[in-house]
């Protein structure tokens, strides 16, 4: 197994026992998976049923689910680079709506700029940290 991981340039990672947030990306994804509207409350009756459910979930998550952290585009749109056109179109629609009815808008419209980087646990700036 280790040789195959090396061939694929994958580094092994071992979670620490009883540390629920050791792999924050997996934990975050598992929460999305488990708390989604289609999670079977009674569990799965077979391994095949579980596999089929996960396949359907992955299809939904990647191609239908509009993710809030990437400005409500799907992960597939983001991966293909289609998010730029989608977000430009949305910004245009909002600008036209604000121009057509300025009284409806009390401030700026939603920010539809392209997200360049997404992090789960971003580093805090050094100047914002205080000594304990």
Q: What do you see in this structure?
A:
By secondary structure, the protein is mainly α. The protein has a domain at 71-104. The chain has 5 helices and no strands. It has helices at residues 2-7, 24-34, 47-63, 75-80, 83-100. The radius of gyration is 21 Å and the shape is extended. The N and C termini lie far apart (44 Å). Residues 9-75 form the Integrase catalytic domain. GO terms for molecular function: nucleic acid binding. This is Integrase catalytic domain-containing protein.
**Ends distance:** 44 Å
Q: What is the strand content? A: under 5%
Mean pLDDT: 87
| Biggest sheet layout | none
Radius of gyration: 21 Å
Note the overall shape: extended
InterPro entries: Integrase_cat-core, RNaseH-like_sf, RNaseH_sf, Transposase_IS3/IS150/IS904
GO molecular function: nucleic acid binding
Pfam family, one: rve_3
Domain Integrase catalytic: 9-75
